[in-house]
Automatic annotation (TrEMBL):
Entry EC number(s): 2.6.1.52
Binding site for pyridoxal 5'-phosphate: A74, S75, W100, T148, D167, Q190, N232, T233
Any Gene Ontology biological process: pyridoxine biosynthetic process
InterPro entries tied to this protein: Aminotrans_V_dom (IPR000192), Aminotrans_V_PyrdxlP_BS (IPR020578), Pser_aminoTfrase (IPR022278), PyrdxlP-dep_Trfase (IPR015424), PyrdxlP-dep_Trfase_major (IPR015421), PyrdxlP-dep_Trfase_small (IPR015422)
Cofactors, names only: pyridoxal 5'-phosphate
Catalytic activity annotation: 4-(phosphooxy)-L-threonine + 2-oxoglutarate = (R)-3-hydroxy-2-oxo-4-phosphooxybutanoate + L-glutamate; O-phospho-L-serine + 2-oxoglutarate = 3-phosphooxypyruvate + L-glutamate
Protein name according to UniProt: Phosphoserine aminotransferase
UniProt gene name: serC
Matching PANTHER family: PHOSPHOSERINE AMINOTRANSFERASE (PTHR43247:SF1)
Source organism: Pseudopedobacter saltans (strain ATCC 51119 / DSM 12145 / JCM 21818 / CCUG 39354 / LMG 10337 / NBRC 100064 / NCIMB 13643) (Pedobacter saltans)
Keywords recorded for this protein, A-Z: Amino-acid biosynthesis, Aminotransferase, Cytoplasm, Pyridoxal phosphate, Pyridoxine biosynthesis, Serine biosynthesis, Transferase
Amino acid sequence: MKHNFGAGPCILPQEVFKQASEAVLNFNNTGLSILEISHRSKEFIAVCEEAVQLVKELMNVPEGYSVLFLQGGASLQFLMSAINLLPEGGKAAYLETGVWAKKAIKEAKNFGEVEIVASSKDANFNFIPKGYTVPEDAAYFHITSNNTIYGTEMFDFPKTNVPLVCDMSSDIMSREVNVSDFGLIYAGAQKNIGPAGATVVIVKNDLLGKTGRTIPSMLDYQVHIDGESMFNTPPVFSIYVAMLNLRWLKAKGGVAAIEKENIAKADALYAEIDRNPFFKGTAAKEDRSRMNVTFVMENPELEKEFLKLAESRGCIGIKGHRSVGGFRASIYNALPIGGINALVAAMQEFEQSQK
Ligand code: PMP
């Protein structure tokens, strides 16, 4: 049995794979494949509407927000968030917590002044900065709720009057958040939402239309809101599989229920990292991510050997990102506790083998 700890694209529930594969051959008994139906067919419009509805339900999205399924990944959102929200001659504030935040900063600089209010760059982003002040005159404050590469997660969102813009790519729907605390949330689908190819955007409508610039149509949130995510051909299959996955999450009891499981999974893995003398965590304890668990070995020379053992026990995708080294176990919603148990068992087996 394989346990997929990949950082994204990543594990999705087996039943979602099965349902998706059935729809490739015969979608909803239409005698057609999901891959060949028109995005304007009533069948697909129903899929898209259900996907949007499930996002709204699972995240308790309040009135006054739009939910979109777009393309271009979170990387396009680095640009779209800025072009739509940063007024001509205005300023935006950013928290620099990793490579993805840096890329968001780079794109925003194309549209106005950027103030980096705090950074953990000097510590290779192994913690979330705290105690900073957000400038009152910023059009928005951009944060990354979970830093996929460094294994840090923001558990206290800043209290500020400035609209919060959040890259939630790697922890969306893993825990409850209050959407009304945010002006804009975006996430590439390929972790907790579904397969790669779709990007979820949740935007507060009254923030739009205030930049004073002409926004090209494909980059304009309002155009996609008016087109109900069908201004152009949407990623039909990705949205379909995301919809199946969101149904799965709802049936499990929704975000509150999965959050409990995620806490139990992360606690079990961190407990072993802290107990086992061969391993140590890389992120500051209070900021440890429940989605991406980063750790190294006390003796880096043993890392290859442990990786081999873990792989032979079915633990796939744990090699760390090159900028942190060591290991990264991504333990998204769909990874069952059995995956954690297998990895913990491999760590214990390794410890025994060294005696
Ligand atoms: N932000 C975060 C937090 C990510 O983890 C990633 C991808 N792993 C990105 C942005 C970039 O996403 P995409 O590849 O969908 O553009």
